[in-house]
Amino acid sequence: MIGLSDDTETGICEKCIGNPDFAGWIAQNGRKGECDFDSAHGNSNSVVTVEEFTGRMKQLIAPKPKGEIDGTGNDARPHPR
Ligand SMILES: [Zn+2]
Fold first, then answer.
1. Domain boundaries, the chain
2. Alpha-carbon distance 46 to 70, whole Å?
3. How far is the CA of 27 from the centre of ligand 1 (A)?
4. Is the distance from CB of 27 to CB of 48 less than 8 angstroms?
C-alpha cells in the first residue's frame, strides 16, 4: 500500500540536499537507504527521514536565545573574594 499520506518516514538522501553542510550532516547521521524523493538517487546513499532533517534545520536556523539555561537560582555558588 503506497499512498501520499503525511508519512514522516519518507527518506531524503544527501544528494537531495544542495547545501554541503546539510548533506554532510545526512551522511553522518543517516543510514544507507533508498531515496524516496528521486529514485535516480539510488539506494546507496545516506538517508534520513524528513522529520529528522527538518528538525535539524530548525536547530540550525533557530536563533539561540541565550547561552544559559533559563532556570531560577542556578547561581548557587557564591564567589568568594
Ligand atoms: Zn535523494
1. 11-61
2. 36
3. 12
4. no
Whether the Cβ atoms of residue 70 and residue 42 lie closer than 8 Å to each other: no
Q: Name the band, by pLDDT with cuts 50, 70 and 90, for residue 57.
A: confident
Average pLDDT over residues 49-58: 91
Contacts 24+ apart (CB under 8 A), 3-8: 8/49, 8/50, 8/51
How many angstroms is it from 7 CA to the middle of ligand 1?
Answer: 17
Model-wide pTM > 0.85: no
Separation CA 59–CA 79 (nearest Å): 34
> What is the Å distance from ligand 1's center to 67 Cα?
35
Select from 11, 54, 17 the least CA-distant residue to 35: 11
Residue 64 pLDDT greater than 60, yes or no: yes
Alpha helix locations (H) across 16-81?
20-29, 50-61
